Each structure stands twice: as structure tokens, then as C-alpha cells.
UniProtKB/TrEMBL annotation:
This is UV DNA damage repair endonuclease UvsE. Keywords: DNA damage, DNA excision, DNA repair, Endonuclease, Hydrolase, Nuclease. GO terms for biological process: DNA repair. It comes from Haloplanus ruber. Coiled coil: none annotated. The gene is uvsE. GO terms for molecular function: endonuclease activity; hydrolase activity.
Amino acid sequence: MLGYPCMNHTLRERDPPLRCNRDMRKATFAERGLPYASELALQNVEDLHEILAWNADHGIRFYRCTSTLVPWNSQFDLTDLPDYEAIRAVAERCGELIEREGMRLTFHPDYWCRLASDSADTRANSVEAVEYHADWLDLIGLDRSPYYGINVHIGATYGDKAATAERFRDAVDTLSPGARARLTVENDDKESLWSVPELVDALSGTGVPVLFDYHHHAFTDRGLTYREAFDLATETWGDVRPATHYSESARLHGADARPQAHAEFPGRVPTWLRERSDVMIEADGKEQAVFGVRDNY
DNA sequence: TCATGTCAAGCGCTG
DNA sequence: CAGCGCTTGACATGA
């Protein structure tokens, strides 16, 4: 399966727009509080259902939802929301659609989610973030499996990789069963950070799978080919079909961009990657980029 | 309605 | 050493 993250450009441009990333600023949350958070969450979940339905109609069965599905969820429990029952009902319909259509849904908490941080506050916020993503997956009614994953980066070294790996494993141990069972960890896009072999080593014994990002591997290859790194990561998934990320550098497409920047429309996903994993196409072209890649076969 | 500046949260790195 | 970029856009204000 091929998929795309977050926004669907086609549906975003409708009037009214369909999107599941309605958010608000701190001052607005302070002013309007739970009722407005509830209203936004309900609209977001309703639109998530429409996006999933559109995806199914267009043969796209893999989707990553944004982390603003329930805005400000770090500040309350889902059950505190005035519209909780309505939200739950729509979430269940999303789950039924996903089951019926054989779809795959994942999440990717924001950049500040740093489970191995050397700051206890940052670690606590990060654990909390993984937990509320797990609450959403429970609400939708999806299995507690990395198949419906919550994907994070370690994303830093704090000057000591061994100590960072240990803090990461400790954080994993503090997660609830539902959060822990869904966690996946992706290789970073900076030479100094976490490569596939380093993650495999750091996570050995935890059961947490390594999510292989093809483009990022170029920055942390450690002498391994793409296929070697993918094979290494795939072993960590056990019986679960791996999820992977694919993108191409914008530079390959002539842009004067930093090497890490994504091309708007990547060309062709390697056949071996498509055959052996579900591939999230990370590109500004979003759903159109999936169509473009599909047309190249 | 639209343009513009700003926005909760962490990091490493660049200019 | 400030600001950028990530997995990236949207909110809020004022004309």
C-alpha cells in the first residue's frame, strides 16, 4: 500500500474545506476552553471520516492523521469533552471504515516529542503525547499493534548516545500497554543522530519496531545500502507488515534546497520497498504525489 | 476578504 | 548566537 500524511489538498480546497487539523492558539484555549476544543475535535474527527472515505474511493489505504486531531489534548482527557459521546461515535465509524476497507492509519507526534530528553519535563510531556495518540487509536477501535503505529524519533543525542538509549528504553517502560504496543521509532536525517543499525541496537529487547525512512538513510547510512538497512529494520517488525517512509530530495528535482528538503512529487518507489512494506509518501504533493508515484508503474 | 505576523512544547546545526 | 527546519501550516489581527 502507498499512503500520504496529514492534509489532502483536493479536500482542503473544497468549500467548506475538509481537514482534520483544526487548531487554536494558547490565548484562544485560555479564553474558550473545553467547549471550543470539543467543537474542533468533533469537526476534525468528522472530516477524518470523510478523508478516509475519499481515500478508499481513490484506492489509497494508508493514511497518517495529524496530531491536532484533538487540539490541546495534553490539557484534558477525552472524556472531559462536552461532545465526547458524539466524538466517540464518529471515531467508531472511522474504525469500521478502516476495518471494512482494509486500511491502515498511523500517527506521528510533533517535533517536541522527545522521549529520551535529558529534561524530565520534556520526557513527561512526550510520554503524555504518546499516550493521547494511543487514546485516539483506542477510541477509533484499532488493534494495539505497530500496524496502527505511533511513530517517533529519538531525534537527539544529548552528547551521549548510550545514556540517551537507556533513557529512551526507560521511557518506553513507563508507557501504558496500549501506547507501548503501538510505538515505532524512525531513523533521523542528520549524520550525528540515529541510524537504522543504531536504533536496532538501542531498541533490542524492547519489541519496539524500527521504521525505515528511505530518504533519511542517505544521511545516516553507516556504510549500509538502502536494502541492507531496510532488511535490518524489517526484522524488528516480527509478523507485522512494516511501515516505511519514502521521499526524494528536492535537489534531485532541480530545486536549490537543503538536501533534507522533500521533493513535491517523487518519481518512483523502489519495487522491493513497495512489495515488502506499506510506504508513506512524504511529499508536499500529498495525495497527488501518491497518484504520481502510482502512475509510474 | 486578504495579507501579514505570529504561533505550547526540543533539538542540532547553519549562516 | 540568533534563527531555521523538522513530520509542517494555520491562527489571529487589522486593513
